[in-house]
Amino acid sequence: MTGEQFRDAATSVVNDIERYYTTLPSRPVVPSVSPGYIQKLLPTEPPAKGEAWQDIENDIERTIMPGITHWQSPKFMAFFPASSTYPGILGEMWSAALTAPAFNWICSPAVTELETVVLDWLAQILGLPEAFLSKGEGGGVIQGSASEAIVTVMVAARERFIRRQLEREGITDAEEIEDRSCELRGKLVALGSDQAHSSTKKAAIIAGTRFRSLTTSRSDNYALTGAQLRTKLEDLTSRGLHPYYLTVTLGTTNTCAIDDIASLASVARDYPDLWIHCDGAYAGAALVLPEYHQSLSNHLTHVDSFDVNMHKWLLTNFDASCLYIQKRRDLTDALSITPAYLQNHFSDSGLVTDYRDWQIPLGRRFRALKIWFVIRTWGVEGLRQHIRRHLHFGDIFAGLVRERSDLFSILVPPRFALTVLTVNPRRKQRTVLDEQAEGGDPRPYEAQHVPVMAETDDEELREANEITKEVYTAIDERKEFFLTASVIGEAYAIRVVS
Ligand code: PLP
User: Fold this and answer.
1) Beta carbons of 109 and 375 less than 8 angstroms apart
2) Which of 148, 278, 282, 420 to mutate to test the pocket of ligand 1 (most atoms within 8 A of CB)?
3) Residue ending a domain, choose from 336, 359, 375
4) What is the pLDDT of residues 328-343, one digit of tens each?
5) How many domains does the chain have?
Protein backbone atom coordinates (compact mmCIF):
# COMPACT_ATOMS: atom_id res chain seq x y z
CA MET A 1 0.00 0.00 0.00
CA THR A 2 1.48 3.33 -0.99
CA GLY A 3 1.09 6.52 1.01
CA GLU A 4 -1.54 7.75 -1.42
CA GLN A 5 -3.47 4.48 -1.27
CA PHE A 6 -3.22 4.63 2.51
CA ARG A 7 -4.76 8.11 2.51
CA ASP A 8 -7.71 6.92 0.40
CA ALA A 9 -8.16 3.74 2.44
CA ALA A 10 -7.92 5.60 5.75
CA THR A 11 -10.47 8.17 4.59
CA SER A 12 -12.83 5.39 3.65
CA VAL A 13 -12.27 3.61 7.00
CA VAL A 14 -12.89 6.83 8.94
CA ASN A 15 -16.11 7.37 6.97
CA ASP A 16 -17.19 3.80 7.69
CA ILE A 17 -16.38 4.18 11.40
CA GLU A 18 -18.42 7.37 11.59
CA ARG A 19 -21.31 5.61 9.81
CA TYR A 20 -20.98 2.69 12.22
CA TYR A 21 -21.41 4.96 15.24
CA THR A 22 -24.36 6.73 13.61
CA THR A 23 -26.14 3.44 12.93
CA LEU A 24 -25.21 1.88 16.27
CA PRO A 25 -28.53 2.45 18.08
CA SER A 26 -30.41 0.55 15.36
CA ARG A 27 -28.09 -2.48 15.37
CA PRO A 28 -28.97 -5.49 17.54
CA VAL A 29 -26.73 -5.18 20.58
CA VAL A 30 -25.93 -8.90 20.82
CA PRO A 31 -24.99 -10.96 17.76
CA SER A 32 -27.06 -13.93 16.62
CA VAL A 33 -24.19 -15.95 15.15
CA SER A 34 -23.38 -19.51 16.18
CA PRO A 35 -19.95 -20.67 17.38
CA GLY A 36 -17.57 -21.19 14.47
CA TYR A 37 -19.51 -18.81 12.18
CA ILE A 38 -16.43 -16.97 10.96
CA GLN A 39 -14.66 -20.12 9.86
CA LYS A 40 -17.60 -20.83 7.57
CA LEU A 41 -17.28 -17.39 5.97
CA LEU A 42 -13.53 -17.43 5.37
CA PRO A 43 -11.33 -19.62 3.20
CA THR A 44 -9.37 -22.21 5.14
CA GLU A 45 -6.17 -21.29 3.27
CA PRO A 46 -4.44 -17.89 3.46
CA PRO A 47 -4.59 -15.82 0.23
CA ALA A 48 -1.72 -16.67 -2.11
CA LYS A 49 -1.74 -13.19 -3.62
CA GLY A 50 -2.37 -9.84 -1.98
CA GLU A 51 -5.93 -8.49 -2.20
CA ALA A 52 -7.27 -5.04 -2.98
CA TRP A 53 -7.98 -2.92 0.08
CA GLN A 54 -11.62 -2.40 -0.86
CA ASP A 55 -12.22 -6.18 -0.75
CA ILE A 56 -10.65 -6.36 2.68
CA GLU A 57 -12.62 -3.35 3.94
CA ASN A 58 -15.91 -4.83 2.65
CA ASP A 59 -15.34 -7.83 4.88
CA ILE A 60 -15.76 -5.66 7.99
CA GLU A 61 -19.51 -5.34 7.36
CA ARG A 62 -19.92 -8.80 5.79
CA THR A 63 -17.77 -10.94 8.09
CA ILE A 64 -16.93 -9.06 11.25
CA MET A 65 -20.04 -7.03 12.12
CA PRO A 66 -22.36 -10.05 12.43
CA GLY A 67 -20.11 -11.30 15.22
CA ILE A 68 -19.69 -8.04 17.10
CA THR A 69 -21.31 -7.35 20.46
CA HIS A 70 -21.86 -3.61 20.38
CA TRP A 71 -20.44 -2.37 23.69
CA GLN A 72 -21.09 1.23 22.65
CA SER A 73 -24.77 0.61 21.94
CA PRO A 74 -27.23 2.45 24.20
CA LYS A 75 -28.80 -1.00 24.74
CA PHE A 76 -25.59 -2.39 26.25
CA MET A 77 -26.09 -2.39 30.02
CA ALA A 78 -24.09 -5.50 30.88
CA PHE A 79 -20.83 -5.96 32.84
CA PHE A 80 -19.32 -2.47 33.06
CA PRO A 81 -19.04 -0.07 30.12
CA ALA A 82 -16.06 0.02 27.75
CA SER A 83 -15.43 3.55 26.58
CA SER A 84 -14.93 4.52 23.00
CA THR A 85 -14.68 8.11 21.84
CA TYR A 86 -13.43 9.79 18.70
CA PRO A 87 -10.42 11.41 20.48
CA GLY A 88 -9.64 7.97 21.95
CA ILE A 89 -9.74 6.43 18.46
CA LEU A 90 -7.48 9.19 17.13
CA GLY A 91 -5.03 8.46 19.94
CA GLU A 92 -5.00 4.80 18.90
CA MET A 93 -4.35 5.84 15.27
CA TRP A 94 -1.33 7.92 16.21
CA SER A 95 -0.11 5.22 18.55
CA ALA A 96 -0.25 2.75 15.67
CA ALA A 97 1.52 5.22 13.40
CA LEU A 98 4.37 5.75 15.87
CA THR A 99 4.45 2.12 16.85
CA ALA A 100 7.38 1.31 19.11
CA PRO A 101 7.79 -1.12 21.98
CA ALA A 102 9.06 1.76 24.09
CA PHE A 103 10.30 -0.15 27.12
CA ASN A 104 13.15 2.23 28.06
CA TRP A 105 13.14 6.04 28.06
CA ILE A 106 15.61 6.12 25.15
CA CYS A 107 13.28 3.96 23.03
CA SER A 108 11.10 7.07 22.58
CA PRO A 109 11.42 9.66 25.33
CA ALA A 110 8.01 11.15 24.44
CA VAL A 111 6.25 7.85 25.17
CA THR A 112 7.63 7.74 28.71
CA GLU A 113 7.44 11.43 29.51
CA LEU A 114 3.90 11.96 28.25
CA GLU A 115 2.79 8.96 30.32
CA THR A 116 4.26 10.49 33.48
CA VAL A 117 2.60 13.84 32.78
CA VAL A 118 -0.89 12.53 31.94
CA LEU A 119 -0.91 10.16 34.88
CA ASP A 120 0.02 13.05 37.18
CA TRP A 121 -2.85 15.03 35.60
CA LEU A 122 -5.25 12.16 36.20
CA ALA A 123 -4.05 11.75 39.81
CA GLN A 124 -4.90 15.40 40.40
CA ILE A 125 -8.29 15.08 38.73
CA LEU A 126 -9.12 12.07 40.92
CA GLY A 127 -7.92 13.88 44.05
CA LEU A 128 -5.38 11.15 44.81
CA PRO A 129 -3.05 11.77 47.74
CA GLU A 130 0.18 13.56 46.75
CA ALA A 131 2.19 10.39 47.48
CA PHE A 132 0.91 8.91 44.21
CA LEU A 133 2.38 11.74 42.11
CA SER A 134 5.68 11.35 40.32
CA LYS A 135 7.28 14.35 42.05
CA GLY A 136 7.74 12.29 45.23
CA GLU A 137 8.53 8.62 45.67
CA GLY A 138 5.42 7.40 43.85
CA GLY A 139 3.93 7.63 40.39
CA GLY A 140 1.61 6.12 37.84
CA VAL A 141 2.04 3.68 35.00
CA ILE A 142 -0.39 2.51 32.31
CA GLN A 143 -1.12 -1.21 32.32
CA GLY A 144 -3.22 -3.23 29.92
CA SER A 145 -5.90 -4.17 32.42
CA ALA A 146 -6.87 -4.07 36.08
CA SER A 147 -5.99 -7.78 36.28
CA GLU A 148 -2.49 -7.10 34.97
CA ALA A 149 -2.12 -4.31 37.54
CA ILE A 150 -3.11 -6.71 40.32
CA VAL A 151 -0.61 -9.38 39.27
CA THR A 152 2.09 -6.73 39.03
CA VAL A 153 1.53 -5.28 42.49
CA MET A 154 1.01 -8.72 44.02
CA VAL A 155 4.45 -9.79 42.81
CA ALA A 156 5.90 -6.55 44.20
CA ALA A 157 4.12 -7.23 47.52
CA ARG A 158 5.46 -10.78 47.63
CA GLU A 159 9.01 -9.66 46.97
CA ARG A 160 8.71 -6.80 49.49
CA PHE A 161 7.54 -9.21 52.18
CA ILE A 162 10.34 -11.67 51.47
CA ARG A 163 13.00 -8.96 51.31
CA ARG A 164 11.96 -7.50 54.65
CA GLN A 165 11.77 -10.93 56.29
CA LEU A 166 15.25 -11.87 55.04
CA GLU A 167 16.54 -8.59 56.42
CA ARG A 168 14.90 -9.29 59.78
CA GLU A 169 16.48 -12.74 59.82
CA GLY A 170 19.86 -11.32 58.78
CA ILE A 171 20.23 -13.69 55.82
CA THR A 172 22.77 -12.49 53.24
CA ASP A 173 24.25 -15.61 51.65
CA ALA A 174 22.88 -16.05 48.08
CA GLU A 175 21.98 -19.73 48.41
CA GLU A 176 20.42 -19.24 51.82
CA ILE A 177 18.38 -16.34 50.41
CA GLU A 178 17.04 -18.60 47.66
CA ASP A 179 16.20 -21.47 50.03
CA ARG A 180 14.54 -19.27 52.63
CA SER A 181 12.60 -17.31 49.94
CA CYS A 182 11.12 -20.56 48.63
CA GLU A 183 10.18 -21.59 52.16
CA LEU A 184 8.52 -18.25 52.85
CA ARG A 185 6.61 -18.24 49.55
CA GLY A 186 4.84 -21.41 50.61
CA LYS A 187 3.43 -19.59 53.62
CA LEU A 188 2.34 -16.37 51.94
CA VAL A 189 -1.39 -15.65 51.71
CA ALA A 190 -3.07 -13.13 49.40
CA LEU A 191 -6.49 -11.89 50.49
CA GLY A 192 -9.59 -10.42 48.92
CA SER A 193 -13.26 -10.39 49.82
CA ASP A 194 -15.74 -12.80 48.27
CA GLN A 195 -16.84 -9.77 46.22
CA ALA A 196 -13.35 -8.88 44.97
CA HIS A 197 -12.93 -9.47 41.24
CA SER A 198 -11.69 -12.93 40.33
CA SER A 199 -8.45 -11.35 39.09
CA THR A 200 -7.13 -11.33 42.67
CA LYS A 201 -7.44 -15.10 42.93
CA LYS A 202 -5.93 -15.51 39.48
CA ALA A 203 -3.03 -13.23 40.44
CA ALA A 204 -2.34 -15.41 43.51
CA ILE A 205 -2.16 -18.45 41.21
CA ILE A 206 0.34 -16.62 39.00
CA ALA A 207 2.31 -15.28 41.98
CA GLY A 208 2.44 -18.84 43.34
CA THR A 209 1.03 -18.05 46.77
CA ARG A 210 -2.09 -19.05 48.68
CA PHE A 211 -5.33 -17.12 48.38
CA ARG A 212 -8.02 -16.76 51.03
CA SER A 213 -11.35 -15.09 50.55
CA LEU A 214 -13.06 -13.01 53.25
CA THR A 215 -16.80 -13.40 53.54
CA THR A 216 -18.90 -10.23 53.31
CA SER A 217 -22.52 -9.91 54.36
CA ARG A 218 -25.69 -8.40 53.05
CA SER A 219 -26.07 -6.36 56.22
CA ASP A 220 -22.80 -4.57 55.29
CA ASN A 221 -24.01 -4.21 51.68
CA TYR A 222 -21.29 -6.70 50.71
CA ALA A 223 -18.47 -4.36 51.73
CA LEU A 224 -15.41 -5.69 53.53
CA THR A 225 -14.88 -4.30 57.03
CA GLY A 226 -11.94 -4.04 59.41
CA ALA A 227 -13.51 -6.49 61.87
CA GLN A 228 -13.67 -9.23 59.21
CA LEU A 229 -10.07 -8.56 58.22
CA ARG A 230 -8.82 -8.67 61.82
CA THR A 231 -10.42 -12.06 62.44
CA LYS A 232 -8.88 -13.49 59.27
CA LEU A 233 -5.42 -12.05 59.92
CA GLU A 234 -5.38 -13.36 63.48
CA ASP A 235 -6.45 -16.80 62.31
CA LEU A 236 -3.82 -16.97 59.54
CA THR A 237 -0.92 -15.72 61.63
CA SER A 238 -1.81 -18.07 64.51
CA ARG A 239 -1.32 -20.91 62.01
CA GLY A 240 2.14 -19.69 60.99
CA LEU A 241 0.99 -18.22 57.67
CA HIS A 242 1.96 -14.78 56.37
CA PRO A 243 -0.80 -12.58 54.93
CA TYR A 244 1.12 -10.28 52.58
CA TYR A 245 -1.43 -8.78 50.19
CA LEU A 246 -5.04 -7.55 50.27
CA THR A 247 -7.28 -6.24 47.50
CA VAL A 248 -9.83 -3.70 48.69
CA THR A 249 -12.39 -2.69 46.10
CA LEU A 250 -13.86 0.67 45.31
CA GLY A 251 -16.92 -0.49 43.37
CA THR A 252 -17.16 -4.28 43.34
CA THR A 253 -18.19 -6.01 40.13
CA ASN A 254 -21.42 -7.46 41.51
CA THR A 255 -22.90 -4.48 43.33
CA CYS A 256 -20.41 -1.58 43.30
CA ALA A 257 -19.83 -2.03 47.03
CA ILE A 258 -17.09 0.10 48.55
CA ASP A 259 -14.92 -1.72 51.05
CA ASP A 260 -14.47 0.19 54.30
CA ILE A 261 -10.95 1.37 53.53
CA ALA A 262 -10.55 3.43 56.73
CA SER A 263 -11.40 0.55 59.09
CA LEU A 264 -9.38 -1.93 57.02
CA ALA A 265 -6.37 0.39 57.10
CA SER A 266 -6.67 0.82 60.82
CA VAL A 267 -6.47 -2.99 61.27
CA ALA A 268 -3.63 -3.21 58.77
CA ARG A 269 -1.56 -0.84 60.90
CA ASP A 270 -0.82 -3.86 63.11
CA TYR A 271 0.38 -5.75 60.01
CA PRO A 272 2.87 -3.37 58.35
CA ASP A 273 3.98 -6.00 55.80
CA LEU A 274 0.48 -6.31 54.36
CA TRP A 275 0.30 -4.59 50.97
CA ILE A 276 -3.09 -3.02 50.33
CA HIS A 277 -4.15 -2.54 46.73
CA CYS A 278 -7.32 -0.59 45.96
CA ASP A 279 -9.11 -1.88 42.86
CA GLY A 280 -11.17 0.98 41.44
CA ALA A 281 -11.35 -0.56 37.96
CA TYR A 282 -14.78 0.88 37.20
CA ALA A 283 -16.00 3.13 40.00
CA GLY A 284 -12.61 4.75 40.55
CA ALA A 285 -13.64 6.99 37.64
CA ALA A 286 -16.27 8.61 39.90
CA LEU A 287 -13.41 10.21 41.85
CA VAL A 288 -13.32 12.89 39.16
CA LEU A 289 -16.18 14.40 41.18
CA PRO A 290 -14.87 16.64 43.98
CA GLU A 291 -17.60 15.45 46.35
CA TYR A 292 -15.83 12.07 46.49
CA HIS A 293 -12.39 13.50 47.27
CA GLN A 294 -13.05 13.90 50.99
CA SER A 295 -15.01 10.68 51.45
CA LEU A 296 -13.04 8.35 49.15
CA SER A 297 -9.85 9.73 47.54
CA ASN A 298 -8.45 10.84 50.90
CA HIS A 299 -8.71 7.29 52.27
CA LEU A 300 -6.28 6.15 49.58
CA THR A 301 -3.40 7.49 51.70
CA HIS A 302 -3.74 4.13 53.49
CA VAL A 303 -3.20 1.95 50.42
CA ASP A 304 0.06 1.04 48.70
CA SER A 305 -1.42 1.05 45.22
CA PHE A 306 -4.58 2.07 43.37
CA ASP A 307 -5.84 1.26 39.90
CA VAL A 308 -8.58 2.68 37.68
CA ASN A 309 -9.48 1.64 34.15
CA MET A 310 -9.94 4.75 32.05
CA HIS A 311 -11.18 2.36 29.39
CA LYS A 312 -14.24 1.53 31.46
CA TRP A 313 -15.95 4.77 32.42
CA LEU A 314 -13.55 7.54 31.44
CA LEU A 315 -13.99 7.96 27.71
CA THR A 316 -10.72 6.29 26.71
CA ASN A 317 -10.58 3.35 24.32
CA PHE A 318 -9.37 -0.02 25.56
CA ASP A 319 -6.76 -0.40 26.93
CA ALA A 320 -5.84 2.17 29.56
CA SER A 321 -5.60 0.84 33.09
CA CYS A 322 -3.90 3.45 35.28
CA LEU A 323 -1.93 2.02 38.18
CA TYR A 324 -0.64 4.29 40.93
CA ILE A 325 1.89 3.35 43.53
CA GLN A 326 3.10 5.24 46.62
CA LYS A 327 6.66 3.90 46.47
CA ARG A 328 7.87 3.15 42.97
CA ARG A 329 10.93 1.44 44.47
CA ASP A 330 8.60 -1.36 45.59
CA LEU A 331 7.87 -2.11 41.92
CA THR A 332 11.32 -1.59 40.52
CA ASP A 333 13.02 -3.59 43.31
CA ALA A 334 10.84 -6.55 42.35
CA LEU A 335 10.77 -6.22 38.57
CA SER A 336 13.99 -4.58 37.42
CA ILE A 337 16.43 -6.88 35.65
CA THR A 338 18.96 -5.23 33.36
CA PRO A 339 20.91 -7.48 31.02
CA ALA A 340 23.71 -5.84 29.04
CA TYR A 341 21.55 -5.34 25.93
CA LEU A 342 19.12 -3.12 27.85
CA GLN A 343 21.80 -0.92 29.39
CA ASN A 344 22.24 2.67 28.21
CA HIS A 345 23.73 5.75 29.79
CA PHE A 346 20.34 7.44 30.31
CA SER A 347 19.07 4.51 32.35
CA ASP A 348 22.37 4.27 34.18
CA SER A 349 22.16 7.96 35.09
CA GLY A 350 19.04 7.28 37.18
CA LEU A 351 17.51 10.48 35.75
CA VAL A 352 14.92 8.78 33.56
CA THR A 353 12.03 6.41 34.09
CA ASP A 354 12.16 3.03 32.36
CA TYR A 355 8.59 1.80 32.58
CA ARG A 356 9.68 -1.76 31.71
CA ASP A 357 10.62 -1.98 35.41
CA TRP A 358 7.03 -1.12 36.44
CA GLN A 359 5.29 -3.90 34.55
CA ILE A 360 5.45 -7.54 33.49
CA PRO A 361 6.10 -7.29 29.72
CA LEU A 362 9.12 -5.55 28.27
CA GLY A 363 7.56 -3.74 25.30
CA ARG A 364 4.78 -1.21 25.73
CA ARG A 365 2.42 0.78 23.53
CA PHE A 366 2.02 4.55 23.33
CA ARG A 367 -1.21 4.53 25.35
CA ALA A 368 -0.63 7.93 26.96
CA LEU A 369 -1.53 9.63 23.67
CA LYS A 370 -5.21 8.69 23.79
CA ILE A 371 -5.44 9.70 27.46
CA TRP A 372 -3.84 13.04 26.56
CA PHE A 373 -6.31 13.55 23.71
CA VAL A 374 -9.27 12.63 25.93
CA ILE A 375 -8.30 14.84 28.88
CA ARG A 376 -7.56 17.78 26.58
CA THR A 377 -10.79 17.37 24.61
CA TRP A 378 -13.09 17.14 27.65
CA GLY A 379 -11.15 19.07 30.24
CA VAL A 380 -11.79 18.39 33.91
CA GLU A 381 -15.24 19.96 33.67
CA GLY A 382 -16.23 17.76 30.75
CA LEU A 383 -15.09 14.60 32.53
CA ARG A 384 -17.16 15.58 35.56
CA GLN A 385 -20.21 16.27 33.42
CA HIS A 386 -19.84 12.89 31.75
CA ILE A 387 -19.82 11.01 35.09
CA ARG A 388 -22.65 13.11 36.51
CA ARG A 389 -24.75 12.38 33.43
CA HIS A 390 -24.35 8.63 33.94
CA LEU A 391 -25.07 8.89 37.66
CA HIS A 392 -28.23 10.76 36.70
CA PHE A 393 -29.22 7.96 34.28
CA GLY A 394 -28.63 5.49 37.14
CA ASP A 395 -30.92 7.53 39.43
CA ILE A 396 -33.63 7.64 36.77
CA PHE A 397 -33.45 3.87 36.26
CA ALA A 398 -33.45 3.08 39.99
CA GLY A 399 -36.43 5.44 40.38
CA LEU A 400 -38.35 3.56 37.67
CA VAL A 401 -37.62 0.25 39.39
CA ARG A 402 -38.79 1.65 42.72
CA GLU A 403 -42.03 2.78 41.11
CA ARG A 404 -42.73 -0.89 40.36
CA SER A 405 -42.08 -2.22 43.84
CA ASP A 406 -44.92 -4.67 43.15
CA LEU A 407 -42.65 -6.39 40.61
CA PHE A 408 -39.08 -5.67 41.65
CA SER A 409 -36.89 -5.36 44.70
CA ILE A 410 -33.57 -3.58 44.72
CA LEU A 411 -30.95 -5.80 46.35
CA VAL A 412 -28.51 -3.15 47.59
CA PRO A 413 -28.63 0.64 47.36
CA PRO A 414 -27.91 1.59 43.71
CA ARG A 415 -24.45 3.06 43.24
CA PHE A 416 -22.29 4.48 40.49
CA ALA A 417 -25.06 4.04 37.89
CA LEU A 418 -25.47 0.34 38.74
CA THR A 419 -28.83 -0.99 39.92
CA VAL A 420 -29.03 -4.59 41.11
CA LEU A 421 -32.56 -5.94 41.19
CA THR A 422 -34.49 -9.12 41.76
CA VAL A 423 -38.00 -10.01 40.62
CA ASN A 424 -40.55 -10.51 43.38
CA PRO A 425 -42.08 -13.99 43.79
CA ARG A 426 -45.58 -14.10 42.25
CA ARG A 427 -47.39 -14.30 45.59
CA LYS A 428 -45.54 -11.19 46.81
CA GLN A 429 -46.45 -9.34 43.61
CA ARG A 430 -50.10 -10.18 44.29
CA THR A 431 -49.92 -9.03 47.90
CA VAL A 432 -48.55 -5.64 46.95
CA LEU A 433 -51.10 -5.22 44.16
CA ASP A 434 -53.96 -6.32 46.42
CA GLU A 435 -52.87 -3.88 49.12
CA GLN A 436 -52.79 -1.11 46.59
CA ALA A 437 -56.17 -2.05 45.09
CA GLU A 438 -57.78 -2.18 48.53
CA GLY A 439 -56.19 1.09 49.52
CA GLY A 440 -54.77 -0.94 52.40
CA ASP A 441 -51.63 1.12 52.83
CA PRO A 442 -52.56 4.65 53.85
CA ARG A 443 -49.13 6.05 52.97
CA PRO A 444 -48.72 7.99 49.72
CA TYR A 445 -47.67 5.81 46.77
CA GLU A 446 -44.07 7.08 46.77
CA ALA A 447 -43.56 6.24 50.46
CA GLN A 448 -44.68 2.64 49.97
CA HIS A 449 -41.71 1.84 47.77
CA VAL A 450 -39.34 -0.54 49.46
CA PRO A 451 -35.85 0.92 48.97
CA VAL A 452 -33.98 -2.36 49.20
CA MET A 453 -34.95 -6.00 49.22
CA ALA A 454 -36.25 -6.97 52.64
CA GLU A 455 -34.85 -10.05 54.42
CA THR A 456 -36.48 -13.11 52.91
CA ASP A 457 -37.21 -16.59 54.15
CA ASP A 458 -35.75 -19.61 52.30
CA GLU A 459 -38.91 -20.39 50.35
CA GLU A 460 -39.33 -16.78 49.23
CA LEU A 461 -35.68 -16.61 48.21
CA ARG A 462 -36.01 -19.79 46.15
CA GLU A 463 -39.09 -18.44 44.40
CA ALA A 464 -37.46 -15.04 43.82
CA ASN A 465 -34.38 -16.72 42.35
CA GLU A 466 -36.50 -18.82 40.05
CA ILE A 467 -38.57 -15.99 38.65
CA THR A 468 -35.60 -13.61 38.40
CA LYS A 469 -33.77 -16.24 36.36
CA GLU A 470 -36.85 -16.67 34.16
CA VAL A 471 -37.09 -12.94 33.53
CA TYR A 472 -33.35 -12.66 32.86
CA THR A 473 -33.48 -15.55 30.39
CA ALA A 474 -36.42 -13.96 28.58
CA ILE A 475 -34.53 -10.65 28.26
CA ASP A 476 -31.41 -12.48 27.14
CA GLU A 477 -33.27 -14.44 24.49
CA ARG A 478 -34.96 -11.34 23.10
CA LYS A 479 -31.50 -9.82 22.47
CA GLU A 480 -32.94 -6.33 22.59
CA PHE A 481 -30.89 -5.29 25.60
CA PHE A 482 -27.72 -6.86 26.97
CA LEU A 483 -27.74 -7.21 30.77
CA THR A 484 -25.70 -9.34 33.16
CA ALA A 485 -27.05 -11.62 35.87
CA SER A 486 -25.09 -12.70 38.91
CA VAL A 487 -25.45 -14.57 42.17
CA ILE A 488 -24.91 -12.26 45.13
CA GLY A 489 -24.93 -13.91 48.51
CA GLU A 490 -27.68 -16.42 47.81
CA ALA A 491 -29.74 -14.16 45.57
CA TYR A 492 -29.90 -14.47 41.79
CA ALA A 493 -29.96 -10.86 40.62
CA ILE A 494 -29.95 -8.77 37.46
CA ARG A 495 -27.42 -5.97 37.11
CA VAL A 496 -28.29 -2.92 35.03
CA VAL A 497 -25.55 -0.39 34.29
CA SER A 498 -27.09 2.85 33.03
N1 PLP B 1 -11.77 -5.28 39.06
C2 PLP B 1 -13.08 -4.99 38.99
C3 PLP B 1 -13.78 -4.38 40.17
C4 PLP B 1 -13.80 -5.28 37.82
O5 PLP B 1 -15.11 -5.03 37.77
C6 PLP B 1 -13.12 -5.84 36.72
C7 PLP B 1 -13.83 -6.13 35.48
O8 PLP B 1 -14.93 -5.72 35.24
C9 PLP B 1 -11.75 -6.11 36.86
C10 PLP B 1 -11.11 -5.83 38.03
C11 PLP B 1 -10.97 -6.73 35.73
O12 PLP B 1 -10.77 -5.76 34.77
P13 PLP B 1 -9.76 -5.99 33.54
O14 PLP B 1 -10.56 -6.54 32.44
O15 PLP B 1 -9.25 -4.61 33.25
O16 PLP B 1 -8.69 -6.90 33.97
Assistant:
1) no
2) 282
3) 375
4) 999 999 999 888 888 8
5) 3
pTM attached to this predicted model: 0.94
Residue 253 Cβ contacting ligand 1 at under 6 Å: yes
Cα 78 from Cα 71, distance rounded (Å): 9
User: Does the CB atom of residue 390 touch ligand 1 within 6 A?
Assistant: no
Higher pLDDT: 431 or 457? It is 457
Q: What domain range is 250 assigned to? A: 97-375
pLDDT tens column, 29-48: 999 999 999 999 999 999 99
Residue 268: predicted pLDDT: 96
Provide ipTM, 2 decimals. Answer: 0.98
Given the CA of residue 309, which atom of ligand 1 is nearest to it? 15
Task: Specify whether the CB–CB gap between 392 and 376 falls below 8 A.
Answer: no
151 in contact with ligand 1, CB cutoff 6 A: no
Same domain, 343 and 411: no
Ligand 1 centroid to Cα of residue 312, in Å, is 9
Testing ligand 1's pocket by substitution, the residue of 202, 279, 308 carrying the most ligand atoms inside 8 A of its CB is 279
At 10, which CATH number?
Answer: 1.20.1340.10
Clarify whether residues 227 and 130 are in a common domain: yes
Q: How much distance in Å is there from the Cα of 343 to the middle of ligand 1?
A: 35
- pLDDT band at residue 191 under the 50/70/90 scheme: very high
Q: Give the span between the Cα atoms of 227 and 418, in whole angstroms.
A: 27
Residue ranges with strand state E in 299-449: 305-309, 321-325, 408-410, 418-423
Which of 97, 56, 137 lies closest to 325 in space, CA to CA? 137
pLDDT cut 70: percent of the chain above it: 95
Single out the residue in 375, 394, 425 at which a domain terminates.
375
200 CA from centroid of ligand 1 (Å)? 10
Q: Is the omega angle on the peptide bond into residue 179 within 30 degrees of 0, that is, cis?
A: no
Tell me, what CATH number does 189's domain have? 3.40.640.10
Assess whether pLDDT exceeds 80 at residue 441.
no
Atom of ligand 1 nearest to the CA of 148: 16
pLDDT at 271 over 90: yes
pLDDT(443) > 50: no
Q: How far is the CA of 318 from the centre of ligand 1 (A)?
A: 12
From 401, 425, 423, 404, select the one nearest 413 (Cα to Cα). 401
Cα 153 to averaged position of ligand 1 atoms, centre (Å)? 15
- 150 C-alpha to ligand 1 centroid (Å): 10
* Amino acid at residue number 152: T
Same domain, 141 and 24: no
Question: What's the mean pLDDT in 245-269?
Answer: 97
Q: Cβ(281) to ligand 1 under 6 A?
A: yes
Ligand 1 centroid to Cα of residue 357, in Å, is 23
Could you report the per-residue pLDDT of 224-245, keeping only the tens digit for each?
Answer: 999 999 999 999 999 999 999 9
Beta bridge partners of 189: 210, 243
Residue at 351 is within a domain: yes
User: Does residue 209 line the site of ligand 1, with CB under 6 A?
Assistant: no
Of 116, 198, 206, nearest to 156 by C-alpha is: 206
